[in-house]
Write a structure and sequence with these properties.
single chain; globular
Length: 428
């Protein structure tokens, strides 16, 4: 009789292919979307929209990514499928309860209070939009994390690819038919994500994933989940500063149009490196819990090789890429920015691999303390460079900040790995 997860084992053998194909669709969809957004929004409005995307990314980091990695670490150790589902749903429902306690009162109060203080429609609706967005993302994570933990790359990659296509199409439709501004962009993004989650809930789970849930099954894992998730949530703003603070610094120093130009190039460069991060994470992260040292070394080497190759490609073909992906008014000086940001992104994906290795070693608290001072450096370096040298200065400042962050994280990983490998520690 075949084991219940034998089909998953077979899928895992083709994991790299499934993951790369899925992420290629994600990359192409995002770049096509970027071209359409820069055609449909003027530079200032695009700058505002990308700052709003930065806010969405902060929510993702604090809530969704912390929940995702927590569920991965726990579900990877559970062999029985029904128990995996119960634990994933139980922990996710508790996470949504905490989010709802924080955001639901604001979603009720802000429309009224915002009118009194003259806030625009986007600001008044932001708590409700955030609650709806986090609700669907938590539901998605509850369903998707167990698939990744058991290395079902075929279905997880299909989900990622389909969501990327819908997430590119939704904002375009809303910008065309609803409102050509940030509010229309965000409504389109939210609608696309909801359609994706509902669709895959029925396609993969016949609409029954969240039925017959016994919260008591997840209760023994709650303390461990909190210990794992809280440092990750606390670290999310630190990572956010490195990824998004530069566009805000430019907005404050050179104006919204400059922020729009910079965000367009940053998004262009960030998407391929985001694909690399996702592919490497999906492939290597489950192995960290079984063969941590080997998986960590392989992950670092792969990240370095791909990252540097990407920087060389932008140096050689940046002008061609800009003509394909960006509207004409966004192209001035784009190639130089691409190269600088590509080197910065290389350090980002290297740091991400080291972060995950440290988390697998249970060193989340030490990682948080180490990276905290790096954020202080970023908060001073990036605005200073942006003020004196504009967008290119902000890019150089970000490169410097990311290099410092990787150096600090890599040094911590080396110390922790040596600490774990000493005979007296191993015996303990």
């Amino acid at each position: 009789m075949r084991a219940p997860d034998s089909d998953v084992d077979r899928n895992a053998r083709f994991g790299v292919v499934h993951t790369i194909l899925g992420q290629l669709v994600v990359a192409v969809s995002s770049l096509v979307g970027l071209r359409l957004y820069t055609e449909m929004l003027d530079r200032s409005e695009f700058g505002v929209a990308m700052m709003a995307v930065g806010g969405v990314a902060l929510l993702d980091g604090v809530v969704v990514m912390a929940l995702n990695q927590t569920l991965l670490s726990i579900c990877a150790e559970i062999d029985e499928p029904e128990r995996r589902r119960q634990v994933s749903v139980g922990l996710s429902l508790r996470a949504f309860g905490a989010v709802a306690v924080c955001l639901a009162p604001l979603a009720v109060v802000m429309p009224v209070a915002g009118s009194e203080f003259g806030l625009d429609a986007l600001m008044r609706a932001s708590p409700a939009l955030a609650l709806a967005y986090l609700g669907e993302e938590i539901a998605k994570t509850s369903m998707l994390a167990p698939l990744i933990a058991r290395r079902d790359y075929r279905r997880s990659s299909l989900w990622a690819a389909t969501e990327a296509v819908l997430s590119g199409l939704g904002p375009v439709l809303c910008l065309r038919f609803l409102a050509a501004n940030t509010f229309g962009f965000l409504i389109g993004l939210l609608a696309a994500r909801v359609v994706s989650v509902v669709g895959f809930h029925f396609a993969f789970f016949h609409g029954r994933y969240f039925s017959d849930v016994d919260l008591g099954v997840a209760a023994p894992y709650l303390d461990r989940a909190v210990r794992y998730a809280v440092p990750m949530s606390a670290m999310a703003p630190l990572g956010w500063v490195g990824a998004y603070f530069d566009r805000y610094a430019i907005g404050m120093t050179t104006g919204l149009a400059g922020a729009g130009d910079y965000a367009a190039v940053s998004g262009l460069v960030g998407r391929p490196y985001g694909v690399v991060t996702s592919v490497l994470t999906n492939y290597f992260r489950p192995s960290l819990f079984h063969d941590g040292a080997k998986a960590s070394r392989q992950w670092l080497l792969a990240a370095a090789g791909v990252g540097l190759a990407g920087a060389a490609a932008f140096a050689l073909f940046g002008d061609i890429v800009a003509r394909l992906v960006l509207a004409p008014e966004y192209r001035l000086g784009a190639t130089a920015l691409m190269v600088i940001l590509a080197f910065a992104q290389t350090f980002v994906i290297l740091t991400h691999s080291a972060d995950n290795a440290l988390l697998a070693l249970g060193a989340g608290g030490a990682l948080l303390r180490t990276q905290l001072w790096v954020v202080v450096a970023s908060l001073s370096i990036i605005p200073a460079f942006a003020y004196f040298y504009g967008p290119s200065g902000a890019a150089v400042g970000r490169l410097a900040a990311e290099a410092i962050k990787f150096a600090a994280t890599g040094a911590l990983l080396l110390r922790r790995a040596r600490w774990r490998s000493t005979p007296e520690r191993s015996e303990a």
